[in-house]
Amino acid sequence: MTYEPKRRDLPQCPDIFNPDDLDVYLNRISEYAAKMVDHKVTTSQIRNIFSRMKKLEALAKKDPDSDSCVADIKRLRVQFAYNSGRNQKNHIYRDFMNDLDELAQKIKTNRDIIRLYEFVEAIVAYMKYHGGESA
Prior knowledge:
Layout (H helix, E strand, L loop, with lengths): L21 H17 L4 H20 L7 H17 L4 H16 L3 H20 L6
């Protein structure tokens, strides 16, 4: 799914599946979240997705090496498209939804779901750190 022909201001999404250096990875997430806050993306806009992902993450942790929750996370792609459509004027939010969609397409195991959840959790935490609305 491609919402925009090119990214505008949101930094490239970090590689959540193979972070080379944890400090660099977290700094990139912080930069990513700061841009979201600067462009008026609120944590309440991602609250529904975050809460659904939290439930899937809890299930995925029970058997991280299986693929029992993969179909459920891929079904969230519909929610990403819906949220993007509701916020067509905020290109940063649309880029974020596009990034989540691309990441969801790469998920193969429950361990990947855990990584995706940790990414979104870090986004919410850094948005709060950078002065964003609380979830």
